[in-house]
Amino acid sequence: MLRAFRAAFLASLALAAATLPARAQTVGEVGVDWLGNDIMIDAVSDPKIKGVTCHVTYFDRSVIDRLKNGNWFEDPSNNSISCRQTGPIEVGDIDLSKGGEEVFRAGLSLVWKNLLVTRIYDRKNDTLIYLAHSRELTDGSAKMSITTIPLYGQTVTWQSGKPQ
User: Fold this and answer.
1) What confidence score (pLDDT) does residue 31 get?
2) Closest residue by Cα to residue 129 from 146, 143, 105
3) Strands (E), the chain
């Protein structure tokens, strides 16, 4: 009985991990001022599309800046994104709706604000769209960045067949 429970528990953990957004790897950190504020550059591989890597930048406030200006628990919503083909493209089971699918999420505040990367597939133009934006509980943010990867003319493997 205990062995069956343990196997079921481990299987549910594996399933949950497979549905989580991608994890980022910090590949760059550029100091911008004497206060210790930095621009961080993270590499994010799309978990459902092999051969695509996005580089996302965001502002990381220093302790000195937080003490000087207040707003202790929050980083600015400024961000940028650039995605490129970094290998053969293999498309898994992706959300094909107009709302797309969250690929990556990182906290920009202690509780409420997140930096999100959402992927949308543009069927008509056969293009992957990646949108970086911030989400706040009380006020949304109009600061966003977009990048695209055209699939036209590329050799692309679709796990479930190319959508029509």
Assistant:
1) 77
2) 146
3) 24-31, 38-45, 49-60, 79-91, 101-107, 114-122, 127-135, 144-150, 156-158
The confidence score (pLDDT) of residue 36 equals 66
The C-alpha R_g of the chain, in whole angstroms, comes to 19
Query: Residue 69 pLDDT more than 80?
Result: no
Per-residue tokens: 142 = 């109009």
Percent of the chain exceeding pLDDT 90 equals 35
Between the alpha carbon of residue 49 and those of residues 40, 52, 54, 154, the distances in Å are 24, 6, 11, 14
Long-range contacts for 105-110 (Cβ within 8 Å, ≥24 apart)? Answer: 105/21, 106/24, 106/42, 106/58, 108/58, 108/74, 108/75, 108/76, 108/77, 108/134, 109/73, 109/74, 109/75, 110/73, 110/74
What's the start-to-end Cα distance of the chain, in Å?
47
**Look-up: residue for tokens 């990646």?**
130
- Strand order in 49-60's β-sheet? 24-31, 38-45, 49-60, 79-91, 156-158
CB atoms within 10 A of CB 42: 22
The secondary structure of residue 4, as a DSSP letter, is H
